[in-house]
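Sorry to interrupt, but I need a hand with the structure work. Please put the record directly below this note.
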Amino acid sequence: MRPIVLPKRVCRRMDVAVEARCGWVCYRLSPRGAAVTSHALYLHGGGYVAEIAPIQWHAVAEIAQAANAEITVPIYPLAPIGTAESVIATAVAITAQVSSERPSGIQLLGDSAGGGMALAVAQQLYSQSLPQPRRLILIAPWLDITLVDPAVARIARTDAMLDVPGLIEAGRMYAGELAAEDPRVSPIRGELAGLPPISLFSGTADLVHPDSRALVERAAAEGIDIDYHECERGQHCYPLLPTREGRQARRVIAALLRA
């Protein structure tokens, strides 16, 4: 896989290392001139079909700097070349590898499609008796590629970023040979037992919001430690946006990494 060009401002602010893990290119970002006190792995969104965007790099750099954290960013193959069965298996292997190299463990972050991937990775880690991350931080996670919740159609009218037909097609390509209901594709349909504490961020004007609410309710009912942050009228992935609510959410995420 070819390397990604990072925004110049990110490169000026951060120490950036590039390494190969399990056939993927991975970037490690850490604050320039600061002692790293925590570690995380971040899986980017983009509907499984789009590459990591500058706004995501800037958010990762800002969070890493505020938390004195080293954040590893794997660049996974996009659908339809990269499909859930192989992508999740490799992401699990990389997460376990990075975690084993950090004595204090790591936290696992993801936004949108990457948020769904992060939950699926944690479920697979548990099923394979591998160590869990210390915490899952899910930003507007895409948890069910079927989008069958009746509230989705209503919220789609207020979502300025996503549309249902486009997501359905992207989800179909990412699923590959797996059924749409397979937990590796739609992790809200998987088991929650054994998961680490979860922090979840979701805006009410985001068409994947209903599934976030469903995950929160189910996790609470099953005794999973879940910390929920809801932004009224917040758009998709509001914690990444250059808004007052986005900046506040990034401060909260940095505090979680520091903890």
